[in-house]
Amino acid sequence: MNVWLLLGLLLVHEALEDVTGQHPPKSKSPKEPGENRIKPTNKKVKPKIPKIKDRDSADSPPKTQSIMVQMMEKGRFQKAAATLSLMAGQALELRCKGSKIGWSYPAYLDTFKDSRLSVRQNERYSQLTLLNSTAADTGEFSCWGQLCTGYVCSKDETKTGSTYIFFTEKGELFVPSPSYFDIVYLYPDRQAVVPCRVTVLSAKVTLHREFPAKEIPANGTDIVYDMKRGFVYLQPRSDHQGVVYCKAEAGGKSQISVKYQLLYAEVPSGPPSTTILASSNKVQSGDDISVLCTVLGEPDVEVEFRWIYPGQKSLWVSLNRTKGP
After folding, report:
1. pLDDT digits over 9-68, tens only?
2. DSSP secondary structure code for residue 50 in this structure
3. Going edge to edge, which strands form the sheet with 117-121?
4. Domains identified in the chain and CATH numbers
5. The pTM of the whole model exceeds 0.85
6. Of all helices (H) and strands (E), which one includes residue 5?
7. How far, in Å, CA of 153 to CA of 157, rounded?
8. How far apart are CA 38 and CA 30, in angstroms?
């Protein structure tokens, strides 16, 4: 009885194997120490691409580095601000880092070769010193690094520094002018500037016509005021002609500038024209003759004259300089 029961159970087990296709699990061999127990998979891993920062892009412009500092009291230095206000008579010392530095400063100082100004290049920096400052020294001081190949140098745009300095002097609201009356030419193809600059940053400045007497508004469309230049005529016209002056108010005081004659020039700017005229076309030996050469062009443009005539070993005879038509 027991034998038949065991035989029946065995046949049922084999039948179940044929239907399900399952087999008893095989015995696994023990893994060696250090053997990788992670089963490989067919899952694809997307490679990570490192992000390129904007500052590393070749197309991004180079950053500009300010290289100017101002010497303060007790030998301290600080970065020069965009605008400074100093009392006239105060000494100024600016330094710009670099072994080769170029400078620019108000033309007034360069025109008269002022001994109060000195520039000295050291091994690692350049030093500009201005002694006994006056209201006339008001203007922009700037420096830049130089890239040199042999004797040819160019400006390094990435290493610059600048500051506009107001030298305040008692009784002087305007930067002094060398004359009491000046001429400003209005050309239709360029801006014109009435150069009434002030020595006090907080000063309120207005533009006035002498006749008929009235204030000329700086509306930002035709005329704007730039503290570094003066009143700028953006698109000069013939009706802008006339005599004008500026008025400044600061600290309860007011002052009037020199007068400016605005003259409109119909013809756009261009190269000067020349004419030559002899006193006679035919002369006898021993007679005198004069030759007049005339140049017509824009005012305040320097003109060189070079005379050439037969019988001379050197064609260059003399050089004269003049201004105006």
Report:
1. 555 555 555 545 555 555 555 555 544 455 555 555 566 665 555 554 555 566 777 899
2. P
3. 77-79, 68-71, 92-97, 125-130, 117-121
4. 65-168 (2.60.40.10), 181-264 (2.60.40.10), 273-322 (no CATH)
5. no
6. helix 2-20
7. 13
8. 15
